Target: Phosphate regulon sensor protein PhoR
Amino acid sequence: MSVSMLLRLAWRQSLIRLLLFYAFALGLGLALGEPWWALGLATLALAARAYWRLYRVLRFLDWRKQLRTVDGQGLWAALETLIHRRQTENRRRSRRLVRLLRAYRQAATAMPDGALVIHRRDGRLVWFNKTARHLLGLRYPQSLGEPLADFFAGQTRVRDWLASGQTDEPLLDLPSPADPMVRISLRLIPYSAREWMVVVRDVTKLMRLEQVRRDFVANVSHELRTPLTVVHGYLDMIEPEEHPELAVMVEEMRRQSQRMTQLVEDLLTLSRLEAQESLPEEPLAMAPMLVTLRREAEALSQGRHEVRVLDEAGCDLTGSTKELHSAFSNLVSNAIRYTPTGGRVTIRFEKVAGGGVRLAVQDTGYGIPEQHLPRITERFYRVSTSRSRESGGTGLGLSIVKHVLSLHQARLDVESEVGRGSTFACVFGPARVRMRSQAGDDLEDVS
Ligand code: ADP
Model:
């Protein structure tokens, strides 16, 4: 029955019953000769009944008690019916919510990955599942309320990573606090305005596989070095003038063996970089570095391009001179190799907003179609295989650049437009910038 119908019926019933009750009391009073007394007593009886019903309703408004039966008819009964309905509905809803909550909890607990909820402000643990307990050596309930970073004693990068709130970059390959042989990865997920969810994954197997792959590549490359040196040596001993019929063949064999040597060297460089967690922190003077880069560019170009070097930042860097030189050289060599004769290559060292610096290598070459840009730093990824081979590329140059930069907490920005040219920029944070002892000169005048 709808609420309005119920109320209308209740009003009608109450009114009729009230009238009948008073009529009866009046009739009885008249028969006994005391009508006023009878009406007064009837009113008293009504008031007493109203108090009793009110008491009953109030008791049922306490949520722990459930109204089981609705008593009688009329307005009080209607009130009880409405309360009963609301109570039943609420109970059903909260039971459904509890069931849902339990199911979510069970799902989170049964997850093969560890899950934790922590406060964003101080990283204190709010909740964790069974897998997280095993992986991180937590104890329930003692660990609740403890800062998560405290479980990773000696691993300051966990604290830094939590403080930075990086949701897009997981923290890879950490030793588990419960067992250092177990390697774990952490990922931050925005969970609510005040909390983070941290997903913990056991990556021991993955890391072992990765290690096997790295060792395999490094070993193969290493093993190839000796036979290649021998082949190279013998090829060098053949004088094309003495065997004119072999000249073309020998030339091609030399080119190919050189390419293979370069490939092996690049693979070894990559393996070495991958195995490293950090590089030496040395002062890197940028003025001589830019001079060297210009010399290399000119040697590669053989006068086919205009090479410009602009030193505008007026500061130096900290990092590994050897590795950064290799990264910058790779970019310069690419710029020359992928720019047709008559083009221009500009090497610019400049400041960027926020206190960092960037070394940008800009060319007016072929450019790269947009769909290739996200993948060009992958190993052996080439936009045009034939053009890369022709120019002596191994397809590993940009992977090396990316690795070197990530070891310097720097990034590679690439902009390119087909037919107009490309800009590859190594962007360094303020932590990598150091004062230059002498003011930077315009290197166009230096060399
Ligand atoms: P490669 O040895 O083939 O040059 P890299 O890793 O250095 O390998 O570069 C990957 C691919 O990116 C290249 O094959 C080329 O297609 C493209 N590329 C790199 N630098 C440039 C550039 N300056 N202009 C146009 N294309 C480029």
The longest strand covers residues 183-190. Residues 439-447 have pLDDT under 50 and may be disordered. The pocket of adenosine-5'-diphosphate is lined by residues 330, 334-335, 338, 363, 365-366, 368, 376, 381-384, 388, 393-399, 422 (CB under 6 Å). DSSP finds twelve helices and 13 strands in the chain.
